[in-house]
Amino acid sequence: MNKKGFTLIEMIFCISVILVILLLVIPNVTSKNTVVKNKGCDAQIEVVNSQILLYEIENGELPTSISDLTGGTHPYLTEKQGICPNGKSISIDDGQAYVDE
């Protein structure tokens, strides 16, 4: 009776260990995704703020909305850049970009 292979108990034990490891890792991965999207949003706001300065230098006035930066013959931003990676839209108030809550 010298058969090579795993017994049913060994297989169940290995699968349960793998499941425990996955249960410990999955919440960390999903929370990291949220953090990355929020950091991406902060970076996107900085890009919009830099384009606000460029718009003010070239036009002599502050833009009143994102559409001022995304429209016209020479847009400062693309339509995608008016939205954060987390899906929230970016607005402009008094020359500063912020995220709509």
TrEMBL record:
Superkingdom of source: Bacteria
Membrane spanning residue stretches: 6-29
Keyword annotations: Cell membrane, Membrane, Methylation, Transmembrane, Transmembrane helix
Keyword Transcription in annotation: no
GO biological process terms on file: establishment of competence for transformation; protein secretion by the type II secretion system
Topology term for the membrane: Single-pass membrane protein
A Pfam family this chain is assigned to: N_methyl
GO cellular-component term (any): type II protein secretion system complex
Cell compartments where the protein resides: Cell membrane
Family: Belongs to the ComGC family.
This protein's name: Competence protein ComGC
Protein species of origin: Coprobacillus cateniformis
